[in-house]
């Protein structure tokens, strides 16, 4: 028995990763304000965004499970989202150069107003970067749509000395935790609402 699933994301990387876990799903991006609240801690921030994305799409599509995620980089306690311009990217990559940072990816699964969430944290170590490294990397276009201004799965991979944690979480969707959360959400829903879901044609 499988409940239909919607991925609330515009990220091609999340779509590709989810297709490793789930045979078919709809894709409906969620457009939300990703600005941190004043004084908001990184874990609370990333988890709130994943929940808001899932609940926004779930409100419009109440007949499916809705999965959403959010990824941030945290360097010396500072939250790094996507760079707004080249200066921003240079500042971010400068902070990461020769240092350890954390990548936090939160995942949320919503069904109507119920939401299940988890935050996965991975340590990443960068080699020292020269100004030329950063300038050349920015010119490739890769950093522009990525948290912390790099992609471990692309050209940015050559800056990464090692990681401790989940590679797929750094790319945007932690596979082990997502599979577990989807199973948990599905089981809970089927247990609570099996009669109603059947009547509404959501499950067989
Ligand atoms: C650190 C890192 C981030 N990223 C990506 C993952 C996310 O797509 C992006 C962070 O931005 P997010 O706001 O998490 O996601 P998004 O805007 O791309 O997609 P959506 O909100 O619609 O789901 O950075 C990489 O692809 N590789 C990396 O190594």
From TrEMBL:
Annotated active site: 70 (proton acceptor)
Site annotation Important for substrate specificity: residues: 13, 71, 153
Alphabetized CDD domains for the sequence: Maf
Principal location: cytoplasm
InterPro entries from the UniProt entry: ITPase-like_fam (IPR029001), Maf-like (IPR003697)
Cofactors: a divalent metal cation
E.C. number(s) listed in UniProt: 3.6.1.9
Compartments reported by the entry: Cytoplasm
Record's protein name: dTTP/UTP pyrophosphatase
Source organism (scientific name): Corallincola holothuriorum
């Amino acid at each position: 028995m499988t409940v239909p699933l919607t991925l609330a994301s515009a990220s091609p990387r999340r779509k590709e990763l989810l297709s490793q876990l789930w045979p078919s799903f709809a894709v409906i991006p969620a457009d939300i304000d990703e600005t941190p609240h004043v004084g908001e801690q990184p874990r609370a921030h990333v988890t709130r965004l994943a929940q808001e994305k899932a609940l926004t799409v779930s409100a419009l599509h109440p007949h499916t499970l809705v999965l959403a995620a959010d990824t941030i980089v945290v360097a010396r306690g500072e939250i790094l989202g996507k760079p707004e311009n080249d200066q921003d990217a240079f500042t971010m990559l400068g902070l990461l150069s020769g240092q350890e940072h954390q990548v936090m990816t939160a995942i949320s699964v919503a069904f109507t107003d119920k939401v299940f969430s988890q935050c996965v944290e991975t340590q990443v170590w960068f080699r020292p970067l020269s100004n030329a490294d950063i300038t050349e990397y920015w010119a490739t276009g890769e950093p522009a749509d990525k948290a912390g201004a790099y992609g471990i799965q692309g050209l940015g991979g050559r800056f990464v000395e090692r990681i401790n944690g989940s590679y797929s979480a750094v790319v945007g969707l932690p596979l082990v935790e997502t599979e577990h959360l989807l199973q948990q959400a599905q089981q809970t829903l089927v247990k609570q609402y099996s009669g109603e879901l059947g009547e509404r044609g959501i499950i067989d």
